[in-house]
Write a structure and sequence with these properties.
2 copies of one chain form a homodimer.
Chain A: H1 2-11, H2 16-19, H3 22-25, H4 34-42, E1 44-49, E2 54-56, E3 64-70, E4 72-78, E5 84-91, E6 95-96, E7 107-110, E8 114-120, H5 121-129, H6 132-158, H7 161-176, E9 187-190, H8 195-202, H9 206-218, E10 223-225, E11 229-232, H10 235-242
The structure holds a DNA duplex.
Chain lengths: 244, 244
Amino acid sequence: MDETLRKDIHNSGVPALCRACEARHRGVCGALNVEQLVLLNKHSVRKKVEPGDELVAEEQDISNYANVISGVVKLTKMLPDGRQQIVGLQFAPDFLGRPFSKASKHSAEAATEVELCAFSKSLIDRMIADSPDLEHKLLEQTLNELDEARDWMLTLGRKTAAEKVASFLHLIAVHIDPEAQDADGPISFDLPLTRADIADYLGLTIETVSRQLTKLRKDGVIQIESNRHVTVPDVLRLEERASL
Amino acid sequence: MDETLRKDIHNSGVPALCRACEARHRGVCGALNVEQLVLLNKHSVRKKVEPGDELVAEEQDISNYANVISGVVKLTKMLPDGRQQIVGLQFAPDFLGRPFSKASKHSAEAATEVELCAFSKSLIDRMIADSPDLEHKLLEQTLNELDEARDWMLTLGRKTAAEKVASFLHLIAVHIDPEAQDADGPISFDLPLTRADIADYLGLTIETVSRQLTKLRKDGVIQIESNRHVTVPDVLRLEERASL
DNA sequence: CCCTTGATTTGACCACGATCAAGGAAAAGG
DNA sequence: CCTTTTCCTTGATCGTGGTCAAATCAAGGG
């Protein structure tokens, strides 16, 4: 009783769109009070973008930030001659943007269909300046991204192709279903990336990715249906293959 | 006149050790007021550690943070079977530590002789909690480290051995002498890492690193004296070799 | 239904970087 | 000083993963 009442009070004034939004619960918006939420909501817009759509180009000036509501965004970097590397994946409810810097150091592109909640950089920058809670939340997310980036450096620098592909599948499995970490039942999910994207994420070619997936399938570590849907009967076996 | 007077006032009360400290000017201590500086100084201790000394072990609980005063610290991760990857290098006046997490996700080891200014985690954590400026500074450093990590992922995933070694030399050159970025005169420096460390940073073997250094030397891109001292006559040529 | 288009798989071959092995050079210790 | 140890270089050979090429599969569109 009291419980529900308090919840109502707490939600009163919260913009409708925010109420069910993951960004409000686990993302940066969780650091905002009702007043700030209303203000931000007034200047934000929901967008749906298609796979392949570019959100921010490398070196481009940033005018907007966004929260990922659903889907997967890939952050990529390119060498002058065109070789490409995916340097990060952002899932809901990650914050998308680079505070305190005018230009982005990498490009951001929708890997799947993506829903965004976009808002102006200047407004957030102002809110950051006078809301320590928001800055704290950003620091936490950034530290987590740094940890993930460094984990991935180990994968890129020292693992074999077979281990890289297994590591990738494990990473996706865990991100799609955080419970999968230590579940012993089978888990299954759709790959959010094409073979070409997977190759760019792992520093491999698509042929090698394909061959290693086939190998995992033939060895019974995974099942693949229609190229995108993957089932992992035993996460522990996958982890072994990934040298985790 | 007025200038120097103000400076005196500004420095009055500042602990002697901090006055000439880089961490105070470019590092996190720059975000502290005199009072905080005095408090921190009272609970901090300068240490000198030798190359190879381990500062923080992987998975170990963290009880201390530190500023790097001089020298280079390498952050490393290891696979169960012993393969190792350096996931970051910290130079003065970088902050060393992982706020908001009990255990470290990587090990930290002195690559050269290193001077540290160490202080207790709990004190800093409390100072962070009520000093938005400090948290802001930490966020900035973390964002920069994230950018660097992602830059390096491109190097690890997509560059050839030759390009990796050139990229490493360029990175060190720029870190030792930030002006080197666009200088056209020759620059020279001591390598802070052994061949083995360079290999671990680049995801290569020491043999390959050695061969590529020899190649760069024979091609006149660099000169090497007594294995550690490197001279780069033309930074632009090095950048070309690094595919920057 | 067939044709087009793009994504994925598979095969044959090759090269880059790893591995194995030895020798040389520089620093450390007696 | 010479010895020992560590670090670095160089050479010979091997194998993983890249390259090139073709076949197969899946999804729309006419």
